[in-house]
Write a structure and sequence with these properties.
The chain has 383 residues and is an alpha/beta fold. The strands form two sheets. Strands 1, 11, 12, 13, 14, 15, 16 and 17 form an eight-stranded mixed sheet that branches. Strands 2-3-4-5-6-8-9-10 form an eight-stranded parallel barrel, surrounded by four helices. The structure holds pyridoxal-5'-phosphate. The site of pyridoxal-5'-phosphate has 17 residues, from helix 9.
C-alpha cells in the first residue's frame, strides 16, 4: 500500500475521456490545447500528447515542462496578466503558436523583448467579452471588472497601438470566460461576442488567423460516476452552430478540468474519529495542503469510505493542518474508524498542482492505475 495521502489517477478514464474528445471534434479547423495548469504530471501530459493536443501555458515553467514532455512549441499558447521578460523571451525564442496579450501596456514590452531577440512575436489579443460564465465568482474571468484581458470596448485602441510595433504580428483573438461552466448558454453568448469582434476587425480590414475560445467546461462533482466523461459533443455543437469564423481561420480551445478532473482522486487514511457534542469529525491524513479547493473556493468534492460497508453516519471530514478552513466538508459515510481509507473524488484538476508544503508537510505522490488498482491498494497488494 503506497503511503497516504496520495493522488490516484485512473489512466483508463483519461484514455476514454481523450477518445471522446477526439471523436467529438468533427471540424478540422478546431484545435484543443490542454490547460497544463489543471494538472502537470508528466505521465498525464505524455498521454495527452499521444492524442495530438497542444498545450495552454500560463508561465515560463509551464512552457519548459510542456516542451520537455514532448509538446510541439508550435502548438503552445501562453496567457497570463503578468508575464515577465524572461517568460516572454522563452516564448519568443521557442516561436510558440501565440502569446495571448492581456493588456495594451504589455505590447511595448513584448515588442522590446522580440526586438532584443531579432524576432517577430506572434500575439493574440485576449479580449474580455463581459460574458457572465454563471460560475463561482472566484473562477469567473470574462466580466469587465476582472483583471484578465483587454475590454472589447478598447479593441480599437489596442489595434492602433499594435500597429506602431514592428516586432509584433497580431495573429489572433483570445477569450476565456471562466471555469467549471455547466450551462452551455454562456458559450453561445461568447460566440455572439466573438462574431461582433470579427465584424469589427473586418471593418478595419484586419485579418487574423485564429480564434481562441479558452476553456472552462465543467464536470459533475456531485455525481462523478454518472457521466464521468463530459459531453464534448454538445459543447462543440454550440460553436458549430453559433460561431461564424472567416474561411481559413482556425478555432482553438483550452480545456483543462473537463479532461483530467474526474480521473483523479485523493486517497487518505483516517487518523482519528473525534466525537464532538453534535459533530463527528473524521480527521484524515490529507489536508488543504494536498487539496485546497474546498478551503479556497468552498468547493464540493464527493467523499467515500472505500474500506467500510457499515451503516451510514454523518461526519465532518477535516485535515490535520493548523487552520480552521482545513476541511473537506460534510459527508455521509459508512461508520468510519481509525485506519479506514477515504477517497476524495474528482480531484484530478486543480488538486495536486495547487498543493503546498505548508506546515512543512510532504507532498502527496502520484499513483497510477496501471501500477495499483484501488481494490488491491485496500488489501495492500501491488498489481
Ligand atoms: C486562459 C485560460 N485558459 C484555459 C483555462 C482552463 O480552464 P478549465 O480547466 O476550466 O477548462 C484557464 C483556467 O483558469 C485559463 O485561465
Amino acid at each position: 500500500m503506497p503511503k497516504t495521502p496520495f493522488y490516484y489517477y485512473d489512466l483508463n478514464l483519461l484514455d476514454r475521456t481523450l477518445k471522446a474528445l477526439k471523436s467529438a471534434i468533427t471540424d478540422s479547423s478546431y484545435h484543443v490545447h490542454y490547460a497544463i495548469k489543471a494538472n502537470a504530471e508528466t505521465r498525464i501530459l505524455k498521454k495527452i500528447i499521444d492524442y495530438g493536443l497542444g498545450a495552454d501555458c500560463v508561465s515560463g515553467n509551464e512552457i519548459i515542462k510542456a516542451i520537455d514532455s514532448g509538446f510541439n512549441p508550435k502548438d503552445i499558447v501562453l496567457a497570463g496578466v503578468g508575464k515577465t521578460d524572461e517568460e516572454l523571451t522563452l516564448a519568443i525564442k521557442n516561436n510558440i503558436h501565440s502569446i495571448n496579450c492581456e493588456s495594451i501596456e504589455e505590447l511595448e514590452v513584448i515588442d522590446q523583448v522580440a526586438k532584443q531577440n531579432n524576432s517577430i512575436a506572434k500575439i493574440a489579443f485576449r479580449l474580455n467579452p463581459n460574458v457572465d460564465a454563471q460560475t463561482h465568482r472566484h473562477i469567473t474571468t470574462g466580466l469587465s471588472e476582472n483583471k484578465f484581458g483587454i475590454p472589447v470596448a478598447d479593441l480599437g485602441m489596442a489595434l492602433e497601438e499594435v500597429s506602431k510595433y514592428k516586432n509584433i504580428m497580431l495573429t489572433g483573438v483570445h477569450f476565456h470566460i471562466g471555469s467549471q461552466i455547466l450551462s452551455l448558454n454562456p458559450y453561445a453568448k461568447l460566440c455572439y461576442a466573438v462574431n461582433d469582434v470579427l465584424t469589427f476587425l473586418d471593418s478595419k480590414n484586419i485579418e487574423i488567423e485564429h480564434l481562441n475560445l479558452g476553456g472552462g467546461l465543467g464536470i459533475n462533482y456531485h455525481e462523478p460516476d454518472t457521466n464521468p466523461i463530459p459531453n464534448f459533443e454538445e459543447y462543440f455543437k454550440v460553436f458549430d452552430k453559433f460561431l461564424k469564423p472567416k474561411p481559413n481561420q482556425s478555432v482553438h480551445f483550452e480545456l483543462g478540468r473537463s479532461l483530467v478532473g474526474q480521473m483523479g482522486s485523493l486517497i487518505s487514511k483516517v487518523l482519528y474519529v473525534k466525537v464532538g457534542k453534535e459533530t463527528k469529525f473524521a480527521i484524515i491524513d490529507a489536508g488543504m495542503t494536498d487539496l485546497i479547493r474546498p478551503a479556497l473556493y468552498n468547493s464540493y468534492h464527493k467523499i467515500e469510505n472505500i474500506s467500510s460497508d457499515k451503516e451510514m453516519e454523518s461526519y465532518k471530514v477535516v485535515g490535520p493542518i493548523c487552520e480552521s478552513t482545513d476541511t473537506f466538508g460534510e459527508a455521509v459515510l459508512p461508520m468510519t474508524s481509525r485506519g479506514d481509507i477515504l477517497q476524495i473524488r474528482s480531484a484530478g484538476a486543480y488538486g495536486q498542482v495547487l498543493s503546498s508544503n505548508y506546515n512543512l508537510r510532504d507532498r502527496a505522490e502520484s499513483i497510477y492505475s496501471d501500477e495499483w488498482d484501488l481494490a488491491s491498494i485496500l488489501i495492500g497488494q501491488k498489481n
